[in-house]
Design brief:
The protein is mainly α. 70% of the residues lie in helices and 0% in strands. The protein has one domain. It is built from nine helices and no strands.
Length: 167
Amino acid sequence: MKIAIDRKHNPPSSTQIQLLADIVLFVGIVWALMPQATGIPLHEWGSLLVIIPLLVHLVLDLQWIVAITKRFLKRQPGEVRFNYFWNWFQFVMMVIASFSGILISNAALPALGIPIVVDPFWLEVHLFSANSVMIMLGVHLAMHWQWITANFKRYILRPTPKNGAAA
């Protein structure tokens, strides 16, 4: 899989950068949400690394976040309001999952010399919030599916020119 970018003539667009960051974020989140498949050490370290593409995603969407926040009390389409609330709720659940995950760390913090005594309360909070994030991610993807598929087709599945001709 490669994203078709003509670096000689056109630098990557913000949409291309966002699509690439979102793919990395999605793969990272799915990977982080499967500790049974990766093992606890990779789950914990991978979950910490997912913060990077998440921050890129938020920075690239910052204009939208600010614009909707500024005009929130004005008339907005229901879809925009739902998307706005859903994104905030999903962000809060990701923060809770991350925070509780740190509090129950069996690998990352002990590897850094920080001993942890796992509290069953935080384990339950972590399991609930992580499972919630999984469901919320599905709804988030469904809400943005048209943008995802259109840009995936445009930048990733774009047919390569025949006979080596330039696109």
